[in-house]
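Re-run with default settings, no changes from the original entry. Doing this only to confirm the output is reproducible before filing.
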Amino acid sequence: MSKKKDNHIIVAIHVTDRVKQASRVQSILTKYGGYIKTRIGLHEAKGKAASSNGLILLELVGAQRCSNIIIAELNAITGVEAKGVIFEH
């Protein structure tokens, strides 16, 4: 009998004012750091000055319930939009 594999849970986080919202977003990511397997941060590079907008991609491990909580807490921050995608096995 084969063991069921964990689902792949991907969360995309769009941050519209990185300077203003970075600390609150980071606080939530730190709080749930044990569930974050992979984290990729993307932003438009403009030479010496980085873009104020950013995109963070997370690969989560663990319960889908936890991903819903993370998404809800991130969406409670003004100017932050988080969405999840779950790939089931």
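The two ends are 15 Å apart (CA to CA). The mean pLDDT is 88.
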